[in-house]
Amino acid sequence: MQTVTSIGEDALVRRLTSDLPQDESVIAGPGDDCAVVAGPANGRHLLMKTDSVVEHIHFLRETPARLVGRKAMARVVSDIAAMGGQPRHALITLIVRRATEVRFVDELYQGIREIADPIGINIVGGETSRGDTTVVSISLLGDVSSARWASRSGGKPGDALFVTGCLGGSIKGKHLTFEPRLTEAQWLVKKFPVHAMMDISDGLAKDLPRLAEASGLEFIIEESVIPCSSDCSTDQAWGDGEDYELLFAVSPKTAERLTREWKDQFPDLLLTQIGHLVPIGSGVIPTFQNHGWDHFKRGA
Amino acid sequence: MQTVTSIGEDALVRRLTSDLPQDESVIAGPGDDCAVVAGPANGRHLLMKTDSVVEHIHFLRETPARLVGRKAMARVVSDIAAMGGQPRHALITLIVRRATEVRFVDELYQGIREIADPIGINIVGGETSRGDTTVVSISLLGDVSSARWASRSGGKPGDALFVTGCLGGSIKGKHLTFEPRLTEAQWLVKKFPVHAMMDISDGLAKDLPRLAEASGLEFIIEESVIPCSSDCSTDQAWGDGEDYELLFAVSPKTAERLTREWKDQFPDLLLTQIGHLVPIGSGVIPTFQNHGWDHFKRGA
Fold first, then answer.
1. Domain limits at B54?
2. Which helix (H) or strand (E) holds B264?
3. Do A58 and A89 reside in the same domain of the chain?
4. What is the pLDDT of residues A77-127, one digit of tens each?
5. Mutate to test the interface with A, among B5, B7, B47, B48 (most CBs of A within 10 A)
6. CATH, residue A241
7. Are A78 and A112 in contact (CB under 8 A)?
8. Closest C-alpha to A207, from A300, A297, A291, A295
9. Which of A82, A103, A167, B10 has the fewest other C-beta atoms within 10 Å?
10. CA of A132 to nearest chain B CA: how many angstroms apart?
11. Do B261 and B197 have their domain in common?
């Protein structure tokens, strides 16, 4: 059995980086102290995001490595998407136990590249270290039109709130196999004035209040319309984490056209108006029991 | 006792990010899905680097948190320095046990900022997660003049090889308290045609062959001139890791002027010519017993 210990660090890094596809904007990729990438064209902002998946928390020891890698990359892509941006360059940090099989690392990278390659993301560096728990941490640099990008904080009173897809129950598998809504988010910011947007990673119960608070607002939702994954209650759809669907706010005047054009553009992906943003003091706290994911509080 | 579990993730993040200094180039810092930063001016390349410190490997449970944070930030700054670049924006990933005291995290950030603040590094985001081992992973975006930057691969046959400072024995404390050679590296690339440069993180024994190999060359060193830290043998100076000094190659014609101007500019920091680069087949393998740090092989 080949282990990361038996082949050594340099061989491991060479193995992981020797055939990475990179476009002409990468001036120096893996193998130097830093990755060097050409600056974006004028009119673009850079986007930086880092996110990690940790054994026991985001995946289990028996989770196939390919799905662990896929999830790690899909999570950061989802965040770049949530700004309306384009992912460009990634740094991959792997922390693995000494006895980790090389096959595990190979399959992990296979999963990372299942997401990265079709999007054209350059893996420009990273590092490997050993540790007592397996951790995959990915930093992603992207860019976005400086004229059209979606923060969480631009919501306006009266804005219609939409979510993509179905929510809840991702623990049954979707948390590993979800598709980041990159195409959809880019289409949205290009076609419509999106006031605020984010991806739903910790559950609507956590993330909707975050979007409202960032916009200096509260919200009213219609509890019965929340789109539920099969075999999920509305309570689960509200509180379960790791949906990685989009939550966004647009003017109510935009809502109807958006709904219509969405159906033409993405006929297979549900889009649901779940409520609207309201001024501070006018919001209604939903009656659900499920309060969303907290990285420290859950499982106490 | 306040723990990260008792205050919850959002409060922890607010605590860590509420008073971070940021310059006007940060368009959106912590609190959104991504950090947004203005693109660099023309004639600059972006630099991306990520690096982590892991409990039991890079620090011990009893290591003061401030020094852990300091080390985590100083390591990535050292890598940006090694290109001749300027650090700009950082993302901080903290993986901590559920029972970790908030004070630990506060002190950790204090250490991070001891390095970051004087340099003007913006901490533009990051994330916290729980895990079974404490990990601090930092991604740093920097930039560098596209006309004058130092890779590892530009060494030429006959180039003089220099190292800064003294090497070896960093485990006694320097691995936690070292000063990244940022000022020195920026001065070097500005004043001299530096053919190749890197920071010595895994020991000269590992890193010098890397620089030579990246340049398609081998090396000859004068073993007796390797600058040793006090109480260290030359063998230790050759093989011990975590010196974070600079190793660089310049034309032999440049070497004398460089040595002279260095003494005027940095009178308190030793600069030593340890040997030179030679064509493949002409190198001499040093006689040392110590073979440098490997993240997976060491301690087998």
1. 4-145
2. helix B252-265
3. yes
4. 999 999 999 998 899 998 988 888 888 888 998 999 999 999 989 888 878
5. B48
6. 3.90.650.10
7. no
8. A291
9. A103
10. 6
11. yes
